[in-house]
UniProtKB/TrEMBL annotation:
One Pfam family, short name: PTS-HPr
Keyword Cytoplasm (UniProt): yes
Upper lineage: Bacteria, Bacillati, Bacillota, Clostridia, Halanaerobiales
Domain HPr: 2-88
Keywords, sorted A to Z: Cytoplasm, Phosphotransferase system
Gene Ontology terms: biological process: phosphoenolpyruvate-dependent sugar phosphotransferase system
Gene3D superfamilies: HPr-like (3.30.1340.10)
A cellular component term, taken from the record's GO annotations: cytoplasm
Originating species: Halanaerobium kushneri
Record-given protein name: Phosphocarrier protein HPr
Protein's cellular compartments: Cytoplasm
Source domain of life: Bacteria
Length: 88
């Protein structure tokens, strides 16, 4: 069963270029399959092209979804990264 959380993007530039790259690197550290759900789209959170294709801007609500042995840790760490560590 997957673990998921709704997260609002607070970064001024959204999830583009540098922040997207940082996010993907962070997601890639986990063994679980991790996806970002935005509207009708669902992409692999470990794919820079997939993440950037969503065009996620500041204030956007997304769903982070993970399935695998470290799913809960992955989502909690990625949520924390989005809220506190993501650079412009």
């Amino acid at each position: 069963m997957a673990f998921e959380k709704k997260v609002t993007i607070t970064n001024e530039t959204g999830l583009h270029a540098r922040p997207a790259s940082q996010f993907v690197k962070k997601a890639d550290k986990f063994k679980s399959k991790i996806e970002i759900v935005f509207g009708e789209k669902e992409v692999n959170a470990k794919s820079i092209m997939g993440v950037m294709s969503l065009g996620i801007s500041q204030g956007t609500e997304i769903i982070l979804k993970a399935e695998g042995e470290d799913e809960e840790e992955a989502i909690n760490k990625l949520e924390s990264f989005i809220k506190t560590e993501m650079e412009e």
